[in-house]
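Q: What does the predicted 3D structure of Synembryn-A look like?
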Amino acid sequence: MYNLLCSHEFDQTTELASKCADLGKDLILCKHIPEDVRQNVVNIMYRLEKHLSRFSPKLDEEELAKLKPENRYEDYDITFPKAVLESMADKMDNSPQSDAGLLVSYLAVLHYICAASKGARRYCRLQILPPLKSSDVQRRPDEGDTLRAKVIRLMMSAGPCAEMAAELLFTLCKQSPGRMMKYCGLGHAAGLFANKGLFGSINNRIRRASDSDDSDTEDYRQVEHQVNPVTGFINPLRDNSAWESMSDEQKEFEAMKLVNAMSKLMDTGVIQPGTIGEDGKPRAVEHVCEFLRNQPDPKEASDSD
């Protein structure tokens, strides 16, 4: 069945495809089916992404009253995305590392349904990327046993899950580079930004008043200014006594030594520093002095006249 769905000739708009999707949904909602069967069903649903939007609809009050409280979120039926998310979390915890590649289908199904349904996206975001607390930014975003940390680790892995994990997180962040940086750190999200040409937008962290699902806890707001946007957490304090005891001339001398060292590494091909091109994607620089271009003159900035 999966091989048939992978065929470029398979038409997802047919009645057969619709019936396959409905049957797959029913099987995923079954609690007592073998794990290998559940995996096969999720693989099939991955190839039926055009039908996933039907499985987290917005309901009226009468329809909502028929659902169990745990299967509704706001005005949406989240029975299906909840079941997929729980199955994925269980697989993360109970499968060997060698089977991590099997999570691609789970990530893809969640990505597609969250992209199509606001209710599914908000529910999954609450589970994977809940409002940050001050304790969450005391360590790296990929450390710990939370779903957020586990999905970020998949995004940073060298396996097949990396791209789809990044797409899911980006969808949960409403495709906002600033929000992605907030939850993952620029270092973890750099690959996604590079592929999408979004490096030119990473400073756009303006919150919209209508973005009601981007709430922060009060204790996080108190430490937000301490968070390193590159690492995504509060870096431990470093001993800067050596720099503090230097004169400005000594600091400038050390800075030029660093520039010359980087230039030699570039000339020998050991490293290839990059900058952001006009298309928002990284490009190689010919000389480290390119980093100084378009930088504001501190003297002009301080000249109030």
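A (community wiki): The structure tokens above were generated from the sequence. The two ends are 74 Å apart (CA to CA). Residues 248-267 form the longest helix (20 residues).
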